[in-house]
Amino acid sequence: MNRKDLIAQIKQKKSYLCVGLDTDITKL
Length: 28
Prior knowledge:
The chain is mainly alpha-helical. It has one domain (about 1-28). About 50% of the residues lie in helices and about 0% in strands.
């Protein structure tokens, strides 16, 4: 998953904006 995908996931899940860490993104 590249940064563009990470940003897309974060934008779709605004509740995870504060968890913008690569290590935590995988838990989405």
